[in-house]
RNA sequence: GCUCCCGUAGCUCAGAUGGAUAGAGCGGCGGACUUCUAAUCCGUAGGUCGUAGGUUCGAUUCCUACCGGGGGCGCCA
């Protein structure tokens, strides 16, 4: 338990409970700008006891001994207890956290199997900024869940099945396989898809062929499947390339496309029918989950089987749930999917639960997110009015970063400049995406993202690089200062120390709501606190050898938390920049 | 029409289970580089927290109703 606020809360909880007459009573300890922390619980408790809040606060202080952790306590205002942590306590906690592989972050109370469904691009279609959000948010969550000890299964639910494949395969035939493969491999997927779509919309003969091809595909025709695999193969190769550039954990091993659930769809319908949930409505087989209404205020169905006998995405999403719960044994399933899908996912969850496929204890959560907007507050488009290709976006970011590196640190060898530019450019894109509340739309802005000031990844990376630079120039091995107990004296040292101990809370708050921006906010505060410390507390020219070693220890731990924190977001930490 | 989400400083955004004077960055203004990377730091100005009610000792936070913006609402995914 690295966070001192939690330590105080744990110490006070039994005291509050005793005063409350045995009822579990939360001391309500919060960070404060009037002291290190404030205890608010007395106010709520006072009413129940018919005493004044200040009186209760005094009872609390009389009944407990906080001397091991606090250097001062006072009752303030209507009945708050302000506490100041003792410097010795903070130093002790810091050493303990520095000695921990997880840097003070608590392990998960129980190891859970967590399925994270994210990225989900479509075969034979370009990856756009829209996919950036799912990919980057999902990746960060995967890293954090694993960090605290959960067992994570990554699933990339790619769009590799359905009616569009009829026209795509026919277009492939028209083009010739060699030419098609060539076009697909250079990443010109949009043009391939568009050409197929144009022919489908304007050419009746082609449309007929496409329809017939879908039937062949669904019927398992060998030759059709071979061509389908060609399309899927070229696309997934391209996805892998983008994932590699982006630096996310997804690989081809994580592919669980819609086609994978195809053989299970009939079974889904059978099971629903056996449970008596299926109803026939306008010729389609549907389930009516409670609480969902259509425009006419009539029950809204989840369509399981269309009038023409075909299945749709609801069916495959249900198969997905069954697979994840029954085969994988998931305790938690996270859908990192855009917010427009929220009603659909709620309906899928409702039907799954009603069918008894998902135990009460199993969590199905929609980790929803908003759009990436351009300066005009509309969905980000390129100059020509098309969706922005993810690949091109990343390339541009690295190029822009390279210019900045060249300008700021020209002495760096060219090869290293390129590597640092890559780390900064990719990090900036990811951080811009992760650092705001995911549920909201965010505005994409090159200037701000790569401005290297304010709440941006270059600013955080810079704090880390400066620390590395101190050790490098002094010729001191970082590990050698790791056991030193720092002397927390200067206010900047104190602020930094307290912030370092909050890494634990930051990670858990983030996981609690699946909101990576909370970790970002924490890391930004840490970087600000460090920059202030750096300015006010000289390390190599400290007043004494003891102070120097103390500050080196603080620096080392700061760098470790920063590097680990950024790594949890999927962002690299260059040692020079 | 029903329903979900959003509405905080000029701009871009933080504000966990309600807690004492609402925070940061950018931009503005004013300072700090012979000193561990100034890609930095320090100071300052700037807000009826969309509006109106309600619950509470206490509301940016919870509830209700409005106003504004966006999404969803049966055989696309």
Cα shape: globular
Taking all Cα atoms into account, the compactness measure Rg is: 28 Å
- CATH homologous superfamily assignment of the domain at 390-568: Isoleucyl-tRNA Synthetase, Domain 1
CATH architecture assignment name of the domain at 390-568: Orthogonal Bundle
Amount of helix? 40-55%
* Main sheet: strands, sense, barrel: 4 strands, antiparallel
Span between termini: 34 Å
The level 1 CATH classification of the domain at 390-568 is Mainly Alpha
Number of helices: 21
- Percent range for β-strand residues: 5-15%
Look at the helices and sheets and give the structural class.
alpha/beta
Q: Low-confidence parts lasting 5 or more residues at pLDDT below 50?
A: none
Mean model confidence by pLDDT? 93
* Strand order across the largest sheet: 1-2-4-3
Features:
RNA-binding, alpha/beta, Gyrase A, domain 2, Isoleucyl-tRNA Synthetase, Domain 1, 577 residues, 4-stranded parallel beta sheet, 4-stranded antiparallel beta sheet
Q: What can be said about this structure in brief?
A:
This protein is α/β, with parallel strands linked by helices and 577 residues long. 54% of the residues lie in helices and 10% in strands.
Describe it:
With 577 residues, the chain is of the alpha/beta class. Among the domains are: 4-85, Arginyl tRNA synthetase N-terminal domain (Gyrase A, domain 2); 164-254, no CATH class; 390-568, Isoleucyl-tRNA Synthetase, Domain 1, CATH 1.10.730.10. 54% of the residues lie in helices and 10% in strands. The chain contains 21 helices and 13 strands. Strands 1-2-4-3 form a four-stranded antiparallel beta sheet. The protein has a four-stranded parallel beta sheet with strand order 6-5-10-11, sandwiched between helices. A hairpin with a 2-residue loop joins β7 and β8. The longest helix has 25 residues, at 222-246. It starts with a helix and ends in a 9-residue tail after the last helix. The mean pLDDT is 93. The structure holds one RNA strand of 77 nucleotides.
